User: Which sequence fits this backbone?
């Protein structure tokens, strides 16, 4: 058991977690937590024992040099704390790691132990899935919970998902059984351009988290990165008539549906977000909308900001309503 040394008494703490792997299409969720940790200069105060939960032939350790000394970083899950200032300061416990290879129940129980010791009042788990959503439209982000009362109070969906699940679903269920209010936020990533990074989906998750917690989230260079990402995908899609036609089909299907982004409530949320910013001043495959596996999870992808990977050609011209949040898992 790791002692929580040097952690001060927290103020209204919320735990925000994300895990690389099946629940993290385009690395959108794990990148969101890493972004907050970097922007708020969070300091890691605890880490789970890697040997308890990870298969090192699946998630290999990495070697690096520090001051001429050879060191190894082990794949694991780490926790850090950041304090968000303002009139009503609040602490966030950031949990970032890799979906464990084994002992998922013990893994969740250990995280719940940290949450209990720190007095966490709410757990928010970020995830991203693959869906039939066009890259040219706002990224759909759904908020779901297993708690009917919490769904009513926070304007969330009560999850009805059935099917394969990842660590996000298992952790949410563990929190629910432990009596810890839990929400999961899911961003839909276009399946034809699923390789990381996806700064547009990361930004959408942070915006939804900002609305949920009523806290200003630092955006840094994400808006610029998101614009560059979309421009790059536009250029690549325009070079392939089949992909361009498929994207247009997705756009038409999306535009004819009832868009939550165009509702008065969504517009009000965007205006409130603007006011907050003005006042403050300054692993395996991926989850899909139907719960299936998307195929091998690739880590050796280009990291350029303006040249994302080439969109994958669709196998069939038909589309489904996969960009709706109903398919997200719990």
Assistant:
């Amino acid at each position: 058991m790791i002692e929580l040394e040097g952690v001060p008494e927290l103020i209204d703490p919320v735990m925000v977690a994300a895990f690389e792997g099946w629940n993290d299409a385009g690395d959108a969720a794990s990148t969101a937590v890493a972004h907050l940790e970097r922007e708020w200069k969070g300091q890691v105060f605890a880490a789970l024992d890697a040997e308890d939960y990870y298969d090192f032939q699946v998630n290999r350790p990495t070697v690096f040099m520090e001051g001429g000394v050879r060191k190894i970083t082990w794949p694991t899950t780490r926790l850090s704390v950041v304090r968000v200032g303002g009139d009503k300061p609040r602490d966030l416990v950031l949990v970032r790691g890799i979906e464990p290879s084994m002992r998922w129940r013990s893994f969740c129980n250990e995280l719940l132990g940290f949450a209990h010791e720190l007095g966490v009042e709410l757990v928010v788990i970020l995830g991203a899935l693959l869906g039939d959503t066009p890259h040219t439209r706002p990224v759909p982000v759904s908020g779901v919970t297993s708690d009917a009362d919490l769904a009513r109070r926070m304007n969330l969906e009560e999850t009805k998902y059935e099917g394969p699940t990842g660590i996000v679903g298992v952790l949410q269920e563990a929190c629910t059984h432990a009596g810890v209010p839990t929400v999961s936020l899911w961003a839909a990533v276009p399946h034809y351009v699923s390789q990381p990074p996806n700064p547009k989906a990361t930004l959408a998750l942070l915006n939804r988290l900002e609305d949920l917690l009523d806290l200003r989230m630092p955006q840094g260079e994400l808006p610029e990165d998101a614009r560059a990402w979309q421009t790059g995908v536009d250029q690549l899609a325009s070079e392939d008539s089949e992909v361009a036609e498929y994207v247009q089909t997705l756009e038409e299907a999306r535009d004819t549906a009832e868009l939550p982004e165009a509702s008065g409530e969504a517009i009000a949320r965007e205006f409130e977000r603007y006011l907050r910013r003005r006042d403050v001043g300054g692993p395996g495959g991926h989850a899909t909308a139907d719960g299936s596996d998307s195929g091998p999870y690739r880590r050796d992808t280009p990291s350029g900001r303006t040249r994302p990977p080439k969109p994958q050609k669709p196998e069939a011209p038909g589309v489904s309503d996969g960009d709706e949040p109903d398919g997200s898992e719990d």
About this structure: The first helix runs from residue 28 to 39.
